[in-house]
Amino acid sequence: MALIDIRDLHVSFGEVQAVRGVSAAVAEGESYGIVGESGSGKSTVLRALCGLAPITAGAVTVVNEPLGRRRSAAFHRRVQMVFQDPYASLHPRHTIDRVLSEPLAIHGFADRESRILQALDEVGLGAGFRFRYPHQLSGGQRQRVAIARALILEPRVLLLDEPTSALDASIQAEVLNLLDRLRSERGLTYILVSHDLAVVAHMCERLLVMQHGRAVEELTRDSLRARSAAEAYTRALLSASEGYTPAGATP
Amino acid sequence: MTLLHVDNLRVTFPTRQGPAEVVRGVSFALGRERLGIVGESGSGKSQTGRAILGLTPPPGRATADRLSFDGIDLCRATPRQWRQLRGARISMVMQDPKFSLNPVMTIGRQLIEAARAPRAEAHDRAMAMLDAVQIRDPARVFAAYPHELSGGMGQRAMIAMMLMAEPDLLIADEPTSALDVTVQIEVLRILDRLVEDRGMGLIFISHDLRLVGSFCDRVLVMYAGRVVEELAAADLAQARHPYTQGLLNCLPRIEGGRRPLPTLQREAGWAL
């Protein structure tokens, strides 16, 4: 059985139906991408998984635990999220040490000292960053801290919401390489949400294209590379991500 | 024909550690063409665009050996001359329509304000302009407030406003970065048509090398306040500077390729 099983997920905020019947199954160790434009509901799917958005209808099972209104502490130890904006997702008045020790305290881990040092080392920051504040770090360094915070509980699943879209291209490459390495070292399962098809094609074996809260189609990386998309919307996304083509050159 | 001459442009901000030069001797000439300025955050690309319009935020200071637009010396321009240029002959489009539109005025009123023409005439021009930027329901957008529009619509309204005065030069600072990819291409088509049909000059500032390479005629690559390479957009793949090569190589591709992605190894010499 799949590690994460989403069946006919609906998310509504009052009148607004943000997600309208999305299904997906993600196996252990897989990296699964969700692509779409703003308002497509791609981030809402992730937020519904980790409990930041209500599941209005449908069934979601994560590591054999059917998700209800509340998530157990064990769930949060297994499933962690990395957010888009590294400037907004770290507390400006907490040192990196405090950011990293909070989840350890909540989940009652004992050897905090060594875990913090190990987590900093794994994301390529080193112990020298431990007592700094977020404003003393660059965007790429902050995103590494956010990844360290997620990994410090040794989760099995990482939910990545546009982890590199606020970063420069050269920093994006470093963060993507870091995520890639951590996945192969630890056998993590990723769900990565992005508007950038190239990032998803690089990181994920399978991907789901979403539009207006619905799933448009599911593709494998190979079929994406072969440009064998069945839906017109996916083809439009593909041609738009190639760059600009003068009018008339494309139908 | 050369529209804009920039020679040895420097922008400096005072800091506690002494003056910080963020643009360090940028020179270029612009005709009626699409010129791309690419670089990462902090490369000085946006400050270059602002300095051309005399919009360097104080306490920053911009100096140049020569900064001239259509024969007018911008270094010595009086406030009166600036008022005649800004918005009328040189316009600027910023990245995010949320911050550059007036939130308490309808789009229509803002467009009419930009037209500097009798009201009835301005109204007709505004509607025509909204139509020209591919807004399907111009009457609705005309009466709408900025918060009632999506990001793509807002950015198109912004461009319509900048074009009301039919400028000779448009400085577009990341005009499409806040937009979805499919909308981005539509906005670029509009800009493209304006360059082709009206002979407008366009400075397109962006961090997206792939986009600039496919859209512009010529590209300046900036690093640490300097232009490290200038080349025709078509020759981008043959870039010679290691920074440009590094920027191109570190982008993931749909076709796949290297794993891990090559990262950019910065050399101290580039910033000298």
Can you put this structure into words, describing what you see?
- The complex is a heterodimer of chains A (251) and B (272).
- Chain A has 251 residues and is an alpha/beta fold.
- Chain A contains nine helices and ten strands.
- Chain A has one domain: P-loop containing nucleotide triphosphate hydrolases (Rossmann fold).
- In chain A, the strands form two sheets. Chain A has a six-stranded mixed sheet with strand order 6-7-8-3-9-10, sandwiched between helices. A four-stranded antiparallel sheet of chain A has the order 2-1-4-5, covered by helices on one side.
- In chain A, α5 (139-151) packs parallel to α6.
- The termini of chain A are far apart.
- The mean pLDDT of chain A is 90.
- Chain B folds into two domains: 4-89 and 170-271, 3-Layer(aba) Sandwich (Rossmann fold), CATH 3.40.50.300; 99-166, no CATH class.
- Helix content of chain B is 35%, strand content 25%.
- Chain B contains ten helices and eleven strands.
- In chain B, the strands form two sheets. In chain B, strands 7-8-9-3-10-11 form a six-stranded mixed sheet, sandwiched between helices. In chain B, strands 1, 2, 4, 5 and 6 form a five-stranded antiparallel sheet that branches.
- In chain B, α4 crosses α5 (119-132), α4 (107-115) runs parallel beside α7 (151-163) and α5 packs across α7 (151-163).
- Chains A and B meet through α6, α7, α8 and α9 of A and α8 and α9 of B.
- Chain B: Belongs to the ABC transporter superfamily.
- Chain B: It comes from Cereibacter ovatus.
- Chain B: Pfam families: ABC_tran.
